[in-house]
Design goal:
The complex is a heterodimer of chains A (about 290) and B (about 350). With about 290 residues, chain A is mostly helical. Chain A is built from 14 helices and no strands. The chains are: A mainly alpha (about 290), B alpha/beta (about 350). Chains A and B meet through α1, α7 and α14 of A and α2 and α3 of B.
Chain lengths: ~290, ~350
């Protein structure tokens, strides 16, 4: 064998991320629940609910759901009225559900998938013993951290983006014909998906990865990561209540602040990854 | 002698107050095989980890290839090291090929990485596309070895590499060490298996409680502990051997009911001793110079509280039992500390 002298400029981040993603891809016990979760939240539940409201014509059900619209801010209610001024209460209700009340879907799915992956990614290496291999490898601690972050972020976020496309199709096919054509995604949803959700997901993952680097078992990491999903739940509540999109520019500012917090959280999180922790020994210096 | 490949000076490392390495110093010269010998918990694994910079030491200094492995040069150091951990540390869900390709990418070998050749070298080429989860322990170790040498490292660190292996796989490991040494590479191997180190080590570092009890080439160590040659005598009537004790040139005599183990000033004295015994009517059945084994050396050093016994003497087995008990205690204390 000959000594190989390769170029040293390319980061190992994507090598590490690619390895984790490859393992996930070859794990049916992870992939199947992820698909089921996405299909349930993005396709089946919205389709069933919207079909029920728009086609069953049960006035009592519509009246009950419509009453929840009264909780939305006035400017949101007027937006709904402006979109379909002559529509029936059932159509208005389904429009409001599609645009506002199903918003938590965009948050729950990436949060569930990414925290599950992220919680396991560092402590999992340690439990399997492969942390020893990584610790002795030429990869820097920052490359390991960033690789793990990408590997945690991508499955959840990509599932959400694909689910978002399917959800748009479901909504437009069921509700669109009754409000004058395809209307979804609205501009607010674009902002939510590509400006607000990513930084909140990054904030959550920065904490989850720190936990994963510190705890003794994957089970403990899963338990603890449940506690740090609060920021994303707040986002979903903000959308569902109309608060986030009710006042012009609120979502933009919330996203901006979240990106700043995410950058800080990720920088702090990077310091949690130490080779000693990959080896499973505590108290490394530095 | 050139600059050492590895140099530890007064290295100290503790885990939550429990000392794993204490004032540990030794150097490894290029192209040699160094065996870190000691019971479980002696600090062998921790020493190997500080050599690559996987662990920082909290006192003293470590230089590998003249660089600080825990500093900014750590990446360069680790790229020149190959490590086989005590557990194979493989990705079980993936195939053997995937594991090797991943290592090739981490070590930036490019698309021409010798994945097939490396697997063939350890006899696992046929299993390369199978999931590692289905491999036997021996196959996993062979794959870990193939991965460790994939990038043609200058320094190979093996931590208990034959632990739990079948004889064939153990042989593959030892053959690799021979190959590497013959190719001018430097090898550091941690083991508690004395037979494994026998005949392999250019240098032995005996560790206990994180300290270097003794280090040097095995022959030098033997001469240091037993400066005088040892000869084993046996006879049909063993009681007749006791006459050796008072003969000129004999500096030590022991017999535990079996053959006599005699230390002499010089091997040239042996014909005289044989003649004296024969004249006294003893019918000798064996006269053989005794080369102390590493095992004898090890137990002699570990039981250094008492004067070293003559090599080959039966009394060392009592020492072995005591040493084994001590090893168990040391292992549990370091494992606990690490957790």
């Amino acid at each position: 064998m000959t000594a190989l002298s390769p170029p040293r400029t390319r980061s190992l981040t994507w090598t590490i991320a690619g390895m984790d993603l490859r393992q996930l891809w070859q794990s049916p016990d992870f992939l199947v629940p992820m698909m089921v979760l996405a299909a349930l939240f993005f396709v089946f539940l919205p389709a069933m609910l919207l079909l029920a409201i728009t086609h069953v014509h049960s006035t009592s059900i519509v009246a009950k759901i419509s009453s929840s619209l009264d909780l939305l801010p006035k400017n949101v209610q007027s937006q709904i009225a402006a979109r379909a001024p002559h529509a029936s209460p059932a159509v208005r209700t389904s429009y409001a559900l599609a645009v506002y009340l199903f918003a938590p879907l965009a948050v729950i799915v990436p949060m569930t998938i990414s925290t599950a992956v992220g919680a396991n990614c560092l402590v999992g290496e340690r439990e399997k013993g492969t942390g020893e291999f990584l610790a002795h490898s030429p990869a820097t601690e920052r490359e390991i951290y960033t690789g793990k972050l990408i590997a945690s972020l991508l499955p959840g976020y990509l599932t959400t983006v694909v689910g978002f496309g399917l959800y748009s199709l479901v909504v437009d096919l069921i509700v669109g014909p009754q409000v004058g054509g395809w209307f979804f995604p609205t501009s607010n949803w674009w902002i939510l998906m590509f400006w607000v959700v990513p930084p909140f997901l990054a904030i959550t993952l920065s904490v989850v990865l720190r936990l994963s680097a510190r705890v003794k078992s994957a089970a403990a990491a899963q338990q603890a990561s449940g506690l740090v999903t609060l920021p994303l739940i707040l986002v979903s509540y903000g959308v569902a209540s109309g608060g986030l999109f009710g006042v012009g520019g609120t979502a933009i500012w919330v996203g901006l602040v979240a990106w700043g917090a995410a950058a800080y959280g990720l920088l702090r999180g990077a310091q949690a990854v130490k080779r000693a922790r990959l080896l499973g020994v505590e108290g490394d210096l530095g | 002698m050139g600059d050492p490949v590895v140099e530890l000076r007064s290295v100290h490392r503790a885990f939550k107050g429990v000392v794993a390495l204490e004032d540990l110093s030794f150097a490894v010269q290029a192209g040699t095989v160094t065996v870190l010998l000691g019971p479980n918990g002696a600090g062998k694994t921790t020493a190997a980890r500080v050599i690559t910079g996987a662990l920082r030491c909290d006192g003293g200094s470590v230089r590998t290839f003249g660089l600080d492995p825990a500093g900014p040069d750590g990446t360069d150091v680790r790229r020149r090291c190959g490590v086989v951990a005590a557990k194979p540390a493989l990705y079980d869900r993936l195939s053997g090929r995937d594991n090797l390709v991943y290592a090739a990418r981490l070590y930036r070998l490019g698309p021409r990485a010798p994945v097939e050749a490396s697997a063939a070298r350890f006899g696992i080429a046929d299993a390369l596309d199978l999931r590692v989860g289905g491999y036997s322990t021996g196959m996993k170790t062979r794959l870990a070895l193939a991965r460790a040498v994939l990038h043609d490292p200058e320094l190979l660190l093996l931590d208990e590499p034959t632990s739990g292996l079948d004889p064939e796989s153990s042989h593959a490991v030892l053959a690799l060490i021979d190959d590497m040494a013959a190719g001018g590479k430097t090898v550091v191997m941690c083991t508690h298996l004395l037979l494994e180190a026998e005949g392999l080590a250019d240098q032995v570092v005996m560790l206990e409680g994180g300290r270097n009890l003794l280090s040097g080439p095995p022959d030098d160590l033997v001469r240091r502990i037993w400066p005088e040659p040892t000869v084993v005598f046996d006879a049909e009537d063993r009681a007749a051997l006791d006459g050796l004790a008072g003969l000129p040139g004999v500096t030590g005599y022991s017999r535990d009911g079996g053959a006599a183990v005699v230390t002499v000033e010089d091997l040239a004295r042996v014909p005289d001793l044989v003649a004296s015994l024969a004249a006294a009517g003893a019918r000798l059945t064996k006269v053989a110079p005794h080369e102390p084994t590493l095992e004898e050396l090890y137990f002699a050093v570990r039981n250094a509280g008492a004067a070293p016994s003559a090599p080959g003497a039966g009394s060392r087995f009592a020492g072995a039992a005591a040493a084994a008990a001590a090893a168990g205690m040391a292992a549990s204390s370091e494992d606990e500390a690490a957790r």
